[in-house]
């Protein structure tokens, strides 16, 4: 199969080559093709570059170790996006547990304290950076299910069918989730799109 | 009109999101990935002893081995004896408690009742013996009348059809209380043997008298 230039092969052909002959070159090409789209998707979902890189690397490790769990009936892109999406959701939950914690045992009142995310430093970013930051914050404020659908549709530019396959839901549900997500975003981004 | 507004808003939001700069993976992404894969492979190769033992492919063989051991134990010839103690714990307990009581000198309530009954029956026997003249005959107790033994005379007389006309009056009377005390004393010294001996002596005496 590698008689052709491997870079010309489709994703499905490359994963097949990696499955059958354990060709590391095929794996490398797949990593090169998907590292940036996945990084973009995960970063928009988590809002943290460091954990985003970890998640993408973990996705690639899963691809390397569980290459045989891929079945040729599905598109490779949807398969790898599903893995990355699941890992991102787990990481998001873990981060939330870490950030919000109860201090009931220390105080008399039953209060919870949210620790602010200090990874964003407004004093060191430009105006365009501020706009980007506001959009990113708005994305993080909407519910995770809507966020995933909106990112996959509006940022990753995937089709409704692909999103339905990645999220494991019906196309109609995908459309409604995207719509609701956009409505929620409107509340936070009114002042930006009025300009 | 409202629908158009919604579509416009949706488009604006969509455009805002599409205009966001693309985030790329770090430059050393592949290097780090290779490092992580090698570490993961090394860790997978080094399985701990516990992981090896509890690995899923060993479960059927372990189950078979355990079953074989249980069957072997059940079919062992000595197991029946052992199982008696294992399966009937209350009986063993009873035996143990009795042995402990015996060691401490405490008797079980049933045994005490039995002993009391035995004592009563012996006392009754004794009293009945006292009533019958033949059984109470002793050489010391018999006063001699004209060089002859009155009791023996009576015995010879009673060999006929007539019953003995009189009971010897000079016989020493032992009260029931004294009898009980004596019995208890004897029982303490050697409970069963002395009683049996006494009984034998009495019976042999009476048989001798009868023979004479």
Description:
The complex is a heterodimer of chains A (195) and B (212). In chain A, α6 crosses α8. Chain A is mainly alpha-helical. Chain A is 68% helix and 3% strand. Chain A has two domains: 119 residues, Rna Polymerase Sigma Factor, Chain: A, CATH 1.10.1740.10; 74 residues, Winged helix-like DNA-binding domain superfamily/Winged helix DNA-binding domain (Arc Repressor Mutant, subunit A, Orthogonal Bundle), CATH 1.10.10.10. Chain A is built from eight helices and two strands; from the N terminus they run ααααββαααα. The radius of gyration of chain A is 20 Å and the shape is globular. A two-stranded antiparallel ribbon of chain A has the order 1-2. By secondary structure, chain B is an all-alpha fold. Among the domains of chain B are: 47 residues, no CATH class; 26 residues, no CATH class; 38 residues. In chain B, 70% of the residues lie in helices and 2% in strands. Chain B has ten helices and two strands, in the order αααααααββααα. Chain B has a two-stranded antiparallel sheet with strand order 1-2. In chain B, α9 crosses α10.
- Strand order within the widest sheet of chain A? 1-2
Largest sheet of chain B: 2 strands, antiparallel
Spell out the helices and strands of chain B N to C: HHHHHHHEEHHH
CATH topology grouping of the largest domain in chain A = Rna Polymerase Sigma Factor, Chain: A
State the helical fraction of chain B.
Answer: 55-70%
Strand content of chain A: under 5%
- What name goes with the CATH superfamily of the largest domain in chain A? RNA polymerase sigma factor, region 2, helix turn helix motif
Largest sheet: spatial strand order of chain B: 1-2
Task: Supply the key terms.
heterodimer; A: 195 residues; mainly alpha; Rna Polymerase Sigma Factor, Chain: A; Arc Repressor Mutant, subunit A; 2 domains; two-stranded antiparallel sheet; globular; B: 212 residues; 2% strand
